[in-house]
Specification:
Blueprint lengths: L1 H14 L4 H27 L5 H9 L1 E2 L2 E5 L3 H11 L4 H17 L3 H24 L22 H19 L4 H24 L5 H27 L15
Antiparallel strand pairs: 1-2
Helix pairs in contact: 2-9, 4-8, 5-6, 5-7, 6-7, 6-9, 7-8, 7-9, 8-9
Length: 248
């Protein structure tokens, strides 16, 4: 009985809720891993490499004998097209405006300004990265939606990760109720994953394009969340709203 208790005590000491330093360390490790993945993928793309797994996944998502027909029921294609639009510039801009408006309505002007700046600067980073890598779109299978820009990293995956994860992280900073914070982050992650998956399903991106986009967006969200927390501590932006009907 003594050994399990010692193990539980050790685990609680390392990862318990009162040890913020362990959370910072885990965040750092995750960010470093994402940066390593971005660096490796970027270097391979600059050398003109296309991964065998990329090709296998794209081929696997199309019907045998007809590369123009995706696998799955007939309604899945239209559903994927609808979902992929959630990562488009128009939708992401509209969502950002609505969130900023919500923060202004609840009188969190500084937080609203920070959210707008974080998303706008993320869009700039996205544009710069797209201009550095000139990877052609996959021609292995027919595209099921119209595209015009280069392929790496996926703009939809990267921008949706930047916007949804950043907005969720910053909105979570404005709330004290843990269930609300978990919900916001969970929904943002789900939307980001769905948008990226549909880009591959529709044949307009290599899977490695989407992976790189997710990594960049996740790193950006972590940075914005950390800066937001620092600004809250320094009273530069508003503190979290009191939880309703729940102990903070």
């Amino acid at each position: 009985m003594g050994e399990p208790r010692r193990v539980a005590a050790w685990y609680g000491a390392m990862f318990g809720p009162h040890h913020a330093d362990s959370k910072v360390l885990l965040t750092f490790v995750g960010t470093a891993a994402s940066l390593l993945a971005i660096f490796w993928l970027g270097s391979e793309v600059l050398e003109g490499d296309v991964f065998a797994l990329d090709k296998a996944i794209l081929r696997g998502l199309r019907t045998a004998g007809d590369a123009g027909v995706p696998i799955g029921p007939h309604w899945l294609r239209s559903t994927a097209i609808d979902i992929t639009a959630l990562g488009g510039v128009t939708v992401l801009t509209l969502i950002t405006i609505l969130v900023v408006g919500f923060l202004l309505a609840i009188r969190k002007q500084s937080m609203a300004l920070y959210v707008a700046a974080a998303v706008a600067s993320g869009a700039l980073v996205s544009s710069v990265l797209k201009s550095i890598f000139v990877r052609p779109r996959p021609e292995l299978v027919p595209h099921l939606v119209e595209v015009s820009s280069t392929s790496f990293p996926s703009g939809h995956a990267m921008n949706s990760a930047m916007v949804y994860l950043t907005l969720a992280a910053l909105l979570a900073r404005s709330q004290q109720q843990r269930s609300v914070r978990v919900y916001l982050i969970g929904i943002a992650m789900l939307l980001t994953l769905l948008v990226g998956i549909t880009r591959v399903y529709l044949g307009v991106h290599w899977p490695s394009d989407v992976l790189a986009g997710w990594c960049v967006g996740a790193v950006w969200a972590v940075i914005c969340s950390g800066v937001g927390k620092l600004l809250q501590r320094k009273r530069k932006i508003e503190q979290p709203s009191p939880a309703t009907g729940d102990a903070a």
